[in-house]
Amino acid sequence: MKYGYFDDLQREYVVQRPDTPAPWVNYLGSPEYGAIVSNNAGGYSFAKSGANGRILRYVFNQFDQPGRYLYLRDNASGDFWSASWQPVGKDLEKYHCECRHGMGYTRMLAEYSGIQSEAVYYVPKDSAHEVWELTVTNRSTERRELTLTGYAEFTNHSNYEQDQVNLQYSLFISRTLFDTNRIMQQIHGNLDAQAADEMVDGKTVTERFFGLAGAQVASYCGDKDAFLGRYHTYGNPKGVAAGDLGNVLSYNENSCGALSCVVELEPGESRTVAFLLGMKPSAKAAELLQGYRNAADRCEKELKELKEEWYGRLDHLRVDTPDPAFNTMINTWNAYNCFITFVWSRAASFIYCGLRNGYGYRDTVQDIQGIIHLEPEMAREKIRFMLSAQVDNGGGLPLVKFTHNPGHEDTPDDASYVAETGHPAYRADDALWLFPTVYKYVAETGDKEFLDQVIPFANRDEGTVYEHLKRAVQFSLAHLGPHGLPAGLYADWNDCLRLGANGESTFVALQFYYALRILKYFAEDRGQQEDCRWLENELEEAGKKIQALCWDGDRFIRGFTEEGERIGAAQDPEANLWLNPQSWAVISGLASEEQADEAMRKVFDRLNTPYGAVLMDPPYHAHAFDGALAVIYNPGTKENAGIFSQSQGWLILAEALLGHGERAFRYFTENAPAAQNDRAEIRRLEPYCYGQFTEGPASKHFGRSQVHWLTGTASTVMVGCVEGILGLRPDLNGLRLAPAVPKQWKSFTMEKDFRGRKLHIRVENPNGKESGFTSLNVNGQELASNYIPEKLLTAENEILLVL
Ligand code: GLC
Question: pLDDT value at position 209?
Fold first, then answer.
């Protein structure tokens, strides 16, 4: 079943049926001032932290309320409705609407009883406030008088837990005031006698505002209960029904901002007003509102800026393939999803309440990979930041605090770090993610000097980027398990797999092998002979050990527990085949051709489903070893044999590296949100963003996806598609073109920006291949292989690859 469609030209997803199986949301602004808005206007806002800077209330685990509500009332009939279908929820026979989620904005269009409305929600570029622009048009043949009301439900405390849980305190610190065109909410307002900005008991007066521009306020309300009325709901607030908000303010009650204005419209006439929301003192709010007097013009200009910014980013790679779902994901939605995870990490969604007090090391380093081909400079700054969160012993800080202060941080070796972050120890994989990320950045840009930039370590000392990478290798070497493979430490990529501090993970061993290869490639390019020899030896050693210990005849095992028990071996009753060691054996370059074929076929036969491959099989139930935390989840869920979406990205890449275009593309399609647009009742999540996992065959809800938006899936699948399926594989000195595509793709094109040049690439596939190379022509010159040395490139390049 479909609830909407992709408008690729506008880069919008259009929700046509508002009763979606879950709230389908969009992100506005940035964590500086962030807002999440659903297709029914549900959602919340915050400044800097979803947990500590919460401005708008949202009740989790309840169906999508409250939100940024805009009500319209016909003053002749007394009938009222909302600019989004909910919260009033008019009969869909009479109420026609669509919600358009775009790049950094969301538009709600509705028509009811001859009145058309358009609400646009956005956070202007580089701003710390949000705008709800509302335009109403009279489509009837009579003159109409409408009351327009905006409603914002403030939290009583910026900390969302205090607001939700500690009511004996938070109810009694908030109050609202009214001035001209705005409701002001003060938290700890009684501290206003103290000098400005002075902290009293760690608290200052926090001021939020909800204001109206473009019309006079006719009535207002700052008290949630008074606005709703006893035993009323958001669907029929008393003040809205009456057309008069009663001019009530809160004092020891739940605060809100509600403002009404009255507009009169001749047939065909339109009127635009803007509601503004933010965290500013009254005078600043007044000034800001003043700037929106001419609401329509100002909003148009700001929206144009937003679009230009987003389009500018996304246009660095444009593909046109025979598959519309692939195009929309790569050109717009997967790319947008990558930027959202890049910026927001795991901070705030309808699942993440904002409580994480920092950046997860591995998640953040992985997230960077998804935007390197689009915004390498942005990526570089984050890479620098993450390198500065690497301890001088080479390990990564499992959690990088928002207040991260390079050179001065304590580490997992210090009790203080453990107490503050709750992370008891290093994880085996964290710093190893740096290798593919740094490699991708240097290869995309050709910026080899980056490796010589000096960056502090988290606790003390500093070193070049190259030195940072060396130390990451040394960290793994200093933490080897009994078989000589990297030790499991606290965990590897799989949060639910505790092999024990001295256990050994095949996944980490393969990451380590890959890291050695990348570092060796850098060392060779830099002419560092001694390092080359050292790395060559380590590679040989590691390769031999992994081969001897982890290959089980037809699959790679998952690892060893501290007690030496093999996990993921063929004879295990549960979890005897794991996905990641198979795909990573290919990605890392360790697997021989035969092993790769065998292991990947096993994955396809045993783990694959119509929604992607499960993480392992069979799920843990009765035979979980002590460290198999996944058993706490219902079978078919998350790490317990769910279809972990991030792993689909590695699977796509691995198959593509092997030249298996058919399978690579099949894996893409099985798990791609856009490819499931017509199965929304099964998938449930937004058809335009990835989720953390899809429930596997062992679940009662096989095919349902969960944990929207903020997931490593976005970047990993992006890499799988761009490097893998599209085969855009830059290295230090040029670009290899090695697509792996479905046989029936006759041709496709790619417009790529590469190191300041434009590449117009056309791939032709006259003989129905799934990969391979027949000829490559660059600007009229035939090349001998599918590799384009950078020196052949000019400002504009016409490139034709024949498979
Ligand atoms: C979650 C975590 C990530 C972890 C993955 C697998 O997505 O954010 O760090 O690697 O689960 O357990």
Answer: 98
Encode pLDDT of 233-288 as tens digits.
Answer: 999 999 999 999 999 999 999 999 999 999 999 999 999 999 999 999 999 999 99
Sign of torsion over alpha carbons 679, 684, 690, 696: negative
SS (H, E, C) 263-319: EEECCCCEEEEEEEEECCCHHHHHHHHHCCCCHHHHHHHHHHHHHHHHHHHHCCEEE
CA atoms within 13 A on the CB side of 323: 19
Between helix 579-587 and helix 593-602 the angle, nearest 10°, is 150
pLDDT band at 661 (very low <50, low <70, confident <90, very high): very high
345 lines ligand 1 (CB under 6 A): no
> Which residue among 646, 647, 648, 650 is best mutated to probe the pocket of ligand 1, counting the most ligand atoms within 8 A of its Cβ?
646
CB of 640 within 6 A of ligand 1: the answer is: no
Q: What is the DSSP letter of 372?
A: T
Task: Tell whether the model's pLDDT for residue 583 goes beyond 90.
Answer: yes
Q: Which residues contact 770 (CB under 8 A, 6 or more apart)?
A: 659, 660, 661, 662, 740, 741, 742, 743
- Going by C-alpha positions, the residue among 637, 692, 695, 645 that lies closest to residue 668 is 645
Query: What angle in degrees, to the nearest 10, is found between the helix axes of 376-387 and 361-369?
Result: 160
CA 347 / ligand 1 centre spacing (Å): 14
pLDDT at 195: 56
- Cβ pair 84, 76 in contact under 8 A: no
| Residue 408: C-alpha distances to residues 365, 418, 543, 581 (Å) | 21, 16, 37, 36
- pLDDT class of 118 with cuts at 50, 70, 90: very high
| Mean pLDDT, range 315-319, rounded to an integer | 98
Report the chain's mean pLDDT, rounded to a whole number.
Answer: 96
pLDDT confidence tier of residue 577, bands split at 50, 70 and 90:
very high
Report whether residue 645 contacts ligand 1, using a CB cutoff of 6 Å.
no
The pLDDT value given to residue 364: 97
> Distance between CA 228 and CA 248 in Å, rounded?
12
**Bridge partners of residue 259, in order along the sequence:** 150, 220
Phi-psi category of residue 6: left, alpha or beta, with phi > 0 → left and psi -120 to 50 → alpha: beta
Measure Cα distances from 721 to 326, 363, 443, 468 in Å: 9, 19, 17, 29
Q: How many whole angstroms separate alpha carbon 377 and alpha carbon 741? A: 30
Looking at ligand 1, which atom is closest to the CA of residue 644?
6
Q: Is the CB of 639 under 6 A from ligand 1?
A: yes
Query: 219 in the Ramachandran plot: left (φ > 0), alpha (ψ -120 to 50) or beta?
Result: beta
Residue 495 CA, ligand 1 centroid: distance in Å? 6
CB of 671 sitting under 6 A from ligand 1: no
> What CA–CA distance (Å, rounded) separates 586 from 590?
6
The pLDDT of residue 198 is: 56
Q: Which of 206, 277, 239 is nearest to 44 (CA)?
A: 277
Q: Give the SS3 label for residue 607.
A: helix
Alpha helices in 573-732 (DSSP H): 579-587, 593-602, 645-657, 661-671, 680-683, 713-719
Nearest CA to ligand 1 atom 9: 363
pLDDT-derived band at 49 (thresholds 50, 70, 90) equals confident
Torsion angles phi and psi, residue 15, rounded to 5: -85, 115
Q: Which of the residues are catalytic?
A: 495
Atom of ligand 1 nearest to the CA of 639: 12
The per-residue pLDDT for range 481-498, each reduced to its tens digit, is 999 999 988 889 999 999
CB 86 within 8 A of CB 110: no
- The mean pLDDT value for 781-788 works out to 98
* pLDDT of 304 strictly over 90: yes
Is-contact 379 447, C-beta < 8 A?
A: no
Does the beta carbon of 663 lie inside 6 Å of ligand 1? no
Distance 494 CA to ligand 1 centre (A): 6
